[in-house]
Amino acid sequence: MAIIEVDGLVKRYGEHTAVNGVSFAVEPGEIFGILGPNGAGKTTTVECVEGLRTPDGGSIRVCGLDPHREEGELRELVGVQLQESELQEKLRVGEALELYSSFYRDPADWRELAGLLGLGDKLGTQFRRLSGGQKQRLSIALALLGSPKVAVLDELTTGLDPQARRDVWDLIEGIRARGVTILLVTHFMEEAERLCDRLAVIDSGRVVALDTPAGLVAKVDDRQRIRFRPSAPLDDALLTALPEVESVQRAGGRVVVTGTGNLLLAVTTTLARNQLTAADLRVEQTTLDDAFVALTGRPVDV
Ligand SMILES: Nc1ncnc2c1ncn2[C@@H]1O[C@H](COP(=O)(O)OP(=O)(O)OP(=O)(O)O)[C@@H](O)[C@H]1O
Fold first, then answer.
1. What whole-number distance in Å separates Cα of residue 10 and Cα of residue 13?
2. Does the beta carbon of 300 lie inside 6 Å of ligand 1?
3. Which of 6, 9, 13, 207 has most ligand 1 atoms within 8 Å of its beta carbon, as the pocket-test mutant?
4. Domains parsed from the chain with CATH numbers
5. What is the complex's ipTM, to 2 decimals?
6. Neighbour count for residue 135 (Cβ, 10 Å)
7. What's this model's pTM, rounded to 2 decimal places?
């Protein structure tokens, strides 16, 4: 049974419909991503899931509870990542963890959690003295203090350098391995591809696609492109005769073959049969970026 069920969610701000019939279901133990351009309605959707906003239509169940009506009970089951601005600059890491753990009936051991998140030697450090990555890890620790079944993480790695971002990804995978279901809002294709089991792409308040990262890419385009330099002049007809090949072009001394299926095997076998080899061979496939542009009509804004 799904641990999060969102069915036909509608949320309006005055005349503006920010979320217009969003539906998705998250299975226990999944990392489920919500991806979309700026203003698509991602944050509004997860704020409704967290019980922070009242929907204007549709229904939501999280661990079987209605987040709006049963917010008190939900607090014990759902961990929400705090925004940076919500923590006092002078609060020390240990104080913040102790304070926030007092909000839960059955909190996790905050010292152990700090160790797990690499903050064990920062307990006496004021929030304002932490690096971006440390602040982010603290906000994740705070989201996990109540030993939640579900963690909702919004723009998890925005503002982090590539190494800190990768460290946070490893951390999230570790948290999932402990059985926590994760609902993740993200702008980053690499993050979505690396972390998420499934993704809902939201655009203008609607789900435009819902699939695994690989499924989204395949839905949009399963074509591949191979580039190489042939070891001797090549007759294009050898390649265009192959059922896998759609087109053969030349670019800067290279042959560019576009096609589907097991294109690489078909092309390399044909070359070998004709005593040719391919130098500088590169295979390019449609990426999640390409899929996002095809689905929403625009590149993702960072
Ligand atoms: N409190 C609010 N009052 C009025 N309009 C709002 C409010 N919060 C969000 N909106 C509007 O609702 C739409 C959806 O906003 P939301 O923050 O959910 O999008 P988002 O996909 O999370 O965007 P971003 O990636 O920029 O954070 C936007 O047009 C936004 O301007």
1. 10
2. no
3. 13
4. 4-218 (3.40.50.300), 222-285 (3.30.70.100)
5. 0.95
6. 18
7. 0.80
